[in-house]
Amino acid sequence: MNEQQSFVQRFEADGAVCLRQAFDADWVELARQGIERNVAQPSPLFRNLARDGGGGFQSDMWSRRYIPEFERFCMESPAAELAAQALRTDRVRLAQDTWFAKRPGSSERTPWHHDTVVDGPFCSMWVALDPTPRDATLEFVRGSHLWGQALMPGAFFDDPEKREGADSFYAEFHGDASRADAHEFGKIPDIEANRDAYDIIGWDMEAGDCVLFDARTIHGAPGNHFNHYMRRFVTRWVTDESVIASHGQDMIDALAKSGLENDLRVGHPIRGPLFPEFNFPSA
Ligand SMILES: O=C(O)CCC(=O)C(=O)O
Q1: Residues contacting 282, CB < 8 A, separation 6+
Q2: Is the CB of 138 under 6 A from ligand 1?
Q3: Which of 105, 139, 145, 236 could form a disulfide with 217, with the two C-beta atoms 3.0–4.6 Å apart?
Q4: pLDDT tens column, 242-260
Q5: 60 sits in which H/E element
Q6: Helix residue spans in the chain (DSSP H)
Q7: Residue 115 to residue 103: CA distance in whole angstroms
Q8: Three-point CA angle 153, 155, 160, nearest 5°
Q9: Using only C-alpha atoms, what is the Rg of the chain?
Q10: Cα–Cα distance for residue pair 252/275, rounded to 1 Å
Q11: How much is the pTM?
Q12: Residue-wise pLDDT tens digits, 28-53
């Protein structure tokens, strides 16, 4: 088995695989510069995710449209081709670019969740832009992409007024708990309180390492208890077969409200200028 086949098999079996030094120092620096520019010029989707309201945990989405460093990273870095290999396809589309940054001492956890707004092939590439020790990095419940159920963090089911920080972010982009279709979701179990009951995997990462994961693999990340800034740039990828899930209308509305014109429709494939296509015809 060659190296490519083995990473694809790991991705399929475990739902997440770590690729060492898949992005060289120039790509890392470019994405860091993009984050710096993006923090100074936040999009309407920019979020302060820390519960205390401070800037300890920040994120923005789809900002490649006006952040040239992100545009270049998305269009020219190895990300698209790695995604095509993982999804065993000749053609992928960029569904989303996003980033997350935790300042030193920010204790906010990224809650355990998975990304369910797309049905069909859907993977994410999480690139570490700073050394990210195992105690701070994104971690996964091995094989949970095969559980076959859409799950949401507990906050999704709570009173929307009481949602805070990172939990509310995931609730907002995956639907409103008062909607009729909310019954489709189960609650994410309390993984943090029962870590020994789950097969949790994660890696000690250097800048330029990435984790490629099936968006349905349950994942979360500890706070940053270290004394350096920790940033990650994430691209999400779909194929021609991927469609917007039945509960995706909230996400479509959130995009439109933020001025991101799109032709997305529930149950339909992901198309249009916001979602560029990349072709890698087999040799
Ligand atoms: O990096 C993080 O803290 C969150 C990443 C994440 O949840 C994702 O990329 O889906």
Answers
A1: 90
A2: yes
A3: 145
A4: 999 888 888 898 889 889 8
A5: strand 57-61
A6: 3-14, 25-40, 68-76, 79-86, 165-174, 249-257
A7: 24
A8: 140
A9: 18
A10: 13
A11: 0.92
A12: 999 999 999 999 999 999 988 887 77
Q: 115 in ligand 1 pocket by Cβ < 6 Å?
A: yes
Cβ 16 under 6 angstroms from ligand 1: no
Q: What is the pLDDT of residue 185?
A: 76
What are the extents of the domains in the chain? 3-259
Give the number of the atom of ligand 1 that is nearest the alpha carbon of residue 234.
Answer: 9
Query: Rounded to the nearest 5 degrees, what angle is found at the Cα of 177, between the Cα atoms of 174 and 182?
Result: 80
Contact 237, 118 (CB under 8 A): no
For range 104-114, the mean pLDDT: 90
Out of 2.60.120.620, 3.40.190.10, 3.40.50.720, 1.10.10.350, the CATH code matching 3-259 is 2.60.120.620
What does the block give as tokens for 238? 């779909």
Could you give the CA distance from residue 214 to residue 123 in angstroms, rounded to a whole number?
A: 4
Q: How many helices (H) and strands (E) does the chain have?
A: 6, 16
- Report how far residue 138's alpha carbon sits from residue 231's, in angstroms, rounded to the nearest whole number: 11
Beta bridge partners of 125: 212, 235
Tell me if 219 CB under 6 Å of ligand 1: yes
Distance CA 91, CA 81 (A): 9
Percent of the chain residues past pLDDT 70, beyond the cut? 88
Q: What is the pLDDT of residues 141-196, one digit of tens each?
A: 999 999 988 887 666 565 555 555 566 666 665 655 555 565 677 888 899 999 99
